[in-house]
């Protein structure tokens, strides 16, 4: 066995090293769990109902699958961070919903003003759950309506 490694040329050793590194990256991405703590200090008030469905989660299925896997009947508990997207002119373009630092949807356009008024242009967080709905993963927020800070 020691002679086998000694007999390999530099390019073969490099190729083996690259293949091993790629296999490790794939394994960690497939089996690894990424947890990013929310940065928002403000907490939205909730009532434990998880009634608010996040819009646009159908466009983020791979990310939701990575975060939640296959959620059970109760869903996958997590913390959502709501981050306003404000243009340089001060115009609110949207409010993104992040889980574990990844974008998983947005607040519905007709309801952005209510959230933005409460959040005062700053990020806020709330409890959330990732659920399987009609074959798709969706995000539901634990927040009261109209929204208010806790």
Explain this structure.
This protein is α+β, with helices and mostly antiparallel strands. 29% of the residues lie in helices and 29% in strands. The protein is built from four helices and seven strands, in the order ααββαβββαββ. Strands 1, 2, 3, 4, 5, 6 and 7 form a seven-stranded mixed β-sheet that branches. The relative contact order is 0.23.
Q: Which properties best describe this structure?
A:
about 30% strand; alpha+beta; single chain; about 30% helix; 7-stranded mixed beta sheet; about 150 residues; 4 helices
Secondary-structure topology with pairs:
Elements: H1 2-7, H2 10-31, E1 42-43, E2 52-53, H3 61-68, E3 76-86, E4 92-99, E5 102-106, H4 112-119, E6 124-133, E7 136-141
Parallel strand pairs: 1-6
Antiparallel strand pairs: 2-7, 3-4, 3-6, 4-5, 6-7
Order of helices and strands: HHEEHEEEHEE
How many helices does DSSP assign? 4
- The fraction of residues in strands falls at 25-35%
Mean pLDDT: 86
Shape: elongated
Instruction: Let me know the number of strands.
Output: 7
Structural class: alpha+beta
Distance between the termini: 65 Å
Low-pLDDT stretches: none
Helix content: 25-40%
Largest sheet: 7 strands, mixed
Multimerization status: single chain
Radius of gyration: 21 Å
Structure in a nutshell:
By secondary structure, the chain is α+β, with helices and mostly antiparallel strands. The chain is 29% helix and 29% strand.
């Amino acid at each position: 066995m020691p002679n086998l490694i000694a007999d390999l040329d530099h390019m073969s050793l490099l190729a083996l090293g690259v293949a091993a590194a790629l296999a490790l990256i794939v394994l960690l991405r497939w089996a690894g769990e990424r947890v990013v703590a929310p940065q928002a200090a403000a907490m939205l008030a909730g009532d434990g109902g998880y009634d608010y469905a996040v819009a646009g989660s159908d466009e983020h299925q791979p990310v939701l699958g990575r975060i939640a896997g296959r959620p059970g009947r109760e869903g996958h508990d997590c913390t959502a961070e709501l981050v306003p997207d404000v243009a340089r002119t001060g115009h609110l373009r949207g409010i993104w919903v992040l889980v574990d630092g990844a974008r998983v949807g947005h607040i519905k356009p007709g309801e952005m003003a209510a959230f933005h008024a409460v959040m005062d242009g700053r990020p806020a967080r709330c409890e959330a759950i990732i659920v399987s709905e009609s074959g798709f993963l969706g995000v539901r927020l634990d927040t009261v309506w109209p929204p208010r800070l806790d």
